[in-house]
């Protein structure tokens, strides 16, 4: 057996900022070598950030990425770090003749091994995901090389992210080639309970590859995606050896006992990948002899967060990164006294600090007394900035010129509020946060250009029942302080905002239950229809009330259009609205009348 | 040689309305048999409409589509039309074991041959496009069968749309199998000058297949896509035999002289498709003996529209279908007296009739006298509905409560106008049309929730220089009447709206040229940057002013976010905003500072 100390750099890159990402590569490699690491593994497309979407189709961007990988190798050597091999993801291109339907310039979701001032060997993702949030057939051509580099007597293979999720391909070839360790840069977005799926998958693939597997995952918010880290190292038998924390940057260092490589020099050979393709294995040698035996450090295995803490952390990180990475200093939101805006304000306080959160209280003639009082109570408990702007006069000035009744009049109130927030945003540079939850967005209880006006929607993918659960959970953490929790001395959310009956307060004595079923009934139905894509007959067979099925499906299908114009927000389920569900606007399919 | 009269049904299906599409199938087949056709070919996914997007991932939808194809065969037979074979596109599914990354349920972009009350044979698209507006790896698995049916002694092969655009696959196999005619259902969206590309492509593929080729294309607006029809039939040598008109439904009937099939019965055999795959040819026999010789009808070759007429027709059709297919009866828009809203109103009048167009004139304190006069002149010339709602008092009522200056104050005016239009839309059910052009959207000269508020953006993909060109062209057609031109007695657009200097009129004496270069300079640069994806260095090398390149690129990249929240609009270039350009919002890549 041979020893190796491996460091996984679970980091938060900035999409498009190749210079900053390169600086971070140098800094984290220095930290890793300072801890005695023999090999450092960064995440998928770390130098460019992931996902870079259509930037990848721009020539100048791909050339800059290739140049950045080469420059990074040089800078590592200049910094005296050239002896430690570094695996890092970036975008490269295949040398293929242009073909109809192939992405322009044939980009690759690549990984490079940087060593002694140069790119020693390269690989690229073989399995391209093109489902859910992934569009990779649009962006990349398939990689067909598996590099295996010998480091201190251990044969180390490199695969990329999706290569773990599909059968055949690099994992099968790594087994065939007798690799002693498989390292995998990833950018695998968070979804509720994905951490359990991920460990089971990585364990299974390690057993298939017949070798230890090191899985380095990106962390951070990137538009609607939240990357949760949760990097892991498992043994060849699939046992968990080390794990990094969720939602935070971490350098995960672990000592591994690995099989010594059999003799055999560099070269290339082809292997049937078991998926209808052939992969070329490329062997290179960095150092043939095992290290002198040394005392291993005890491994770190971070505990998993429970489901509620996990979701809350994802939302906080998403807001923090959306604000910072887009160059905002502060946020503004409307605070109604209800639970949705209360939770959103609390997430914002936890994300960027209450001193950078600005609330506007915009009572109308239909607002209850408790609304303003509950909103002010939250302002006091959290110490956020607040101002009151009553909307009655502005609404009246519109109604003098145009006659509006019913829904049109309700929407007008919501739009006046949206305009006030946007005006203050434009004047002072705050990012407007919207406060709609997934249950109301799904059913269309939201006003286009009204409460949906804004730049980021923190609870867009949170069903109403989960809104309440998160609020209660957050209040129960009172006094605790963490990267995701501000140490407020009192529960940050007024109990009355949690307990009172929900109402939009757009007409006298309005209640959500006037027009919607109880939220526990509605949310179960939405989950089956939106997440599980069940049809009408299946929903009824699953026990949902037929009349409710018909009504809710109609609401959801008709709300699709509004959703398209809703701002992005963090994703915690497989099917948030927006890029996850692509339905035609002009469409006469009705699930209820097939 | 053998004769065959073929009818291509160039039709406008409704996405999701399987019942209406089936009714249309029966009706058009009756018309075709009435004209003596021996074979009728409908378009790609005609029964479901194209594109159905994520509906295809819903089990109930795919099952309904399969049932619709079978039911259609039965209904044709009941209607006495069962003897005439009908090729029609729909969605089927492959019987494949579920696999990670494969679309749920393995849907196929299929075509069925309906004959004597049953589905006689099926095929499915082999080449799946996944670029530009196409996401087909998300939706479909690849078809691997090429049916060849013998009809009156002629061997007819069936391929689907993209199969023509890529090398290898069904075209190569049709040649190998000795087909006498290749029929191809399509849903190929319009882009400027695509008609010329299409004819050249179809001619080349006919020569490769060594047989005549009949190309039936969808027509109609579907969200951002406009299908232009332009169905064509070419001979085995690639000569144009018949062509349908652009942008209108048409039954294209043509008599063909085709080679008689060599003897040989039904059965299947495998052919190397020349693209790394194997395709199974499936031969079936409907009727072995050639028809008795008959006198052919003279073929129809519709003339192509010139480029300006083509774009104008596309915009009119897009608006008409968006309105009708989404169930609206009327549209509303703000009329400023400027050229953008004047052209948009004219397109709307041509699309749905001036009696269903509602204009709101919303002068502010910064509006010039000529603005209101020019707008009223257009109202008079076209006879559209109009009302005047001055915005000064409403703006003042906002400014009493919140202090706004500069851009924030300019945006407020645009938003007050947006709210007035949305209020009237909610009250009366009109669809709001926005009036922004591509040059100003690209550079961010547009207010989120202001002039960008609305449901459809007719000139979203039209650069400002083309706006002027279309306006002059439309005025020059005065007196003409066609499906795309209302026979107005006077030029519908006031000359002053065309000739005056453009201004947003959001502050005193504002001119577009205060902040933007001349539009001919800007539009050339936008075309190179947006459509051609040139990087900064390339743009400068192409002769654009370096300072302007830096400034315009910055504007375009920063405007990306607004564009995401802009309503859909018809697409006339490869890269309209929205689904055609998918850029991260959170992104620090700046083309100007690589």
Automatic annotation (TrEMBL), chains A, B:
Domain (CN hydrolase) ranges: 4-258
Similarity comment text for this entry? In the C-terminal section; belongs to the NAD synthetase family.
Compositional bias segments (type: Basic and acidic residues): 497-513, 577-594
Primary role: Catalyzes the ATP-dependent amidation of deamido-NAD to form NAD. Uses L-glutamine as a nitrogen source.
Q: In which pathway does it act?
A: Cofactor biosynthesis; NAD(+) biosynthesis; NAD(+) from deamido-NAD(+) (L-Gln route): step 1/1
What GO molecular function annotations does the UniProt record carry, in alphabetical order? ATP binding; glutaminase activity; NAD+ synthase (glutamine-hydrolyzing) activity; NAD+ synthase activity; nitrilase activity
Which residues bind deamido-NAD(+) per the record? 411, 440, 562
Q: Which PROSITE patterns match?
A: CN_HYDROLASE, NITRIL_CHT_1
From the UniProt record, list the reaction(s) this protein catalyses.
deamido-NAD(+) + L-glutamine + ATP + H2O = L-glutamate + AMP + diphosphate + NAD(+) + H(+)
| Leader sequence segment | none
* Binding annotation for L-glutamine: 131, 188, 194
Start and end residues of each stretch annotated as Disordered = 491-513, 567-594
Q: Can you say what this protein is called?
A: Glutamine-dependent NAD(+) synthetase
What is the species of this protein? Planobispora rosea
Supply the Gene3D superfamilies for this chain.
Carbon-nitrogen hydrolase (3.60.110.10), HUPs (3.40.50.620)
* Active site, per annotation: 44, 125, 161
Question: Where ATP is bound, by residue?
Answer: 334-341, 435
Q: Which HAMAP family match?
A: NadE_glutamine_dep
């Amino acid at each position: 057996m041979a020893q190796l100390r491996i460091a996984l750099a679970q980091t938060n890159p900035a999409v498009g900022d190749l210079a900053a990402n390169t600086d971070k590569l140098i800094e984290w490699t220095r930290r890793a070598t300072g801890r005695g690491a023999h090999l450092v593994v960064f995440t998928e497309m770390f130098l460019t950030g992931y996902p870079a979407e259509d930037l990848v189709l721009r020539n100048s961007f791909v050339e800059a990425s290739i140049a950045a990988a080469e420059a990074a190798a040089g800078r590592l050597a200049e910094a005296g770090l050239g002896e430690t091999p570094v695996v890092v993801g970036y975008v490269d291109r295949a040398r293929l003749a242009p073909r109809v339907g192939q992405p322009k310039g044939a980009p690759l979701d690549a990984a490079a091994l940087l060593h002694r001032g140069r790119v020693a060997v390269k690989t690229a993702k073989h399995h391209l995901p093109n489902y859910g949030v992934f569009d990779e057939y649009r962006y990349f051509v398939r990689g067909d090389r598996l590099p295996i580099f010998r480091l201190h007597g251990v044969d180390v293979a490199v695969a990329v992210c999706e290569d773990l999720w599909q059968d055949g391909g690099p994992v099968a070839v790594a087994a065939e080639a007798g690799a002693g360790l498989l390292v995998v840069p990833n950018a695998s977005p968070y979804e509720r309970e994905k951490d359990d799926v991920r460990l089971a998958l990585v364990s299974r693939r390690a057993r298939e590859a017949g070798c230890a597997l090191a899985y380095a995952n990106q962390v951070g918010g990137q538009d609607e995606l939240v990357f949760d880290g949760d990097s892991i190292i498992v043994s060849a038998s699939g046992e968990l050896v080390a794990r990094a924390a969720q939602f935070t940057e971490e350098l995960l260092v672990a000592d591994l006992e690995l099989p010594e490589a059999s003799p055999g020099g560099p070269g290339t050979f082809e292997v049937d990948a078991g998926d209808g393709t052939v992969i070329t294995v490329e062997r290179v040698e960095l150092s043939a002899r095992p290290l002198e035996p040394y005392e291993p450090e005890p491994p770190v295995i971070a505990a998993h967060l429970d489901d509620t803490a996990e979701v809350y952390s994802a939302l906080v990180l998403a807001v923090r990164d959306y604000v910072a990475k887009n160059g905002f200093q502060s946020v503004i939101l409307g605070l109604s006294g209800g639970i949705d805006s209360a939770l959103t304000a609390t997430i914002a306080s936890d994300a960027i600090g209450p001193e950078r959160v600005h609330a506007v209280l915009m009572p109308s003639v239909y607002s209850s007394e408790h609304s303003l009082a509950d909103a002010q109570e939250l302002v006091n408990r959290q110490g956020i900035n607040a101002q009151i702007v009553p909307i009655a006069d502005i609404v009246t000035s519109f109604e003098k010129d145009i006659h509006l009744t019913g829904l049109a009049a309700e929407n007008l109130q919501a739009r006046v509020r949206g305009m006030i927030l946007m005006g203050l945003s434009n004047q002072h540079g705050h990012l407007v946060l919207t406060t709609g939850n997934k249950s109301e967005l799904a059913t269309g209880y939201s006003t286009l250009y009204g409460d949906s006006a804004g730049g980021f929607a923190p609870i867009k993918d949170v069903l109403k029942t989960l809104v309440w659960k998160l609020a209660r959970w957050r209040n129960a953490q009172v006094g605790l302080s963490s990267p995701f929790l501000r140490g407020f001395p009192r529960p940050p959310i007024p109990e009355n905002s949690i307990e009172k009956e929900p109402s939009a307060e757009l007409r006298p004595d309005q209640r959500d239950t006037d027009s919607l079923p109880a939220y526990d009934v509605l949310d179960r139905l939405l989950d089956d229809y939106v997440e599980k894509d069940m049809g009408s007959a299946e929903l009824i067979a699953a026990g949902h009330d037929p009349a409710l099925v018909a009504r809710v499906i109609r609401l959801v299908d008709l709300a699709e259009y509004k959703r398209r114009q809703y701002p992005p927000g963090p994703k915690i389920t497989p099917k948030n609205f927006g890029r996850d569900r692509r339905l035609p606007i002009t469409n006469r399919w009705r699930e209820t009348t097939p």
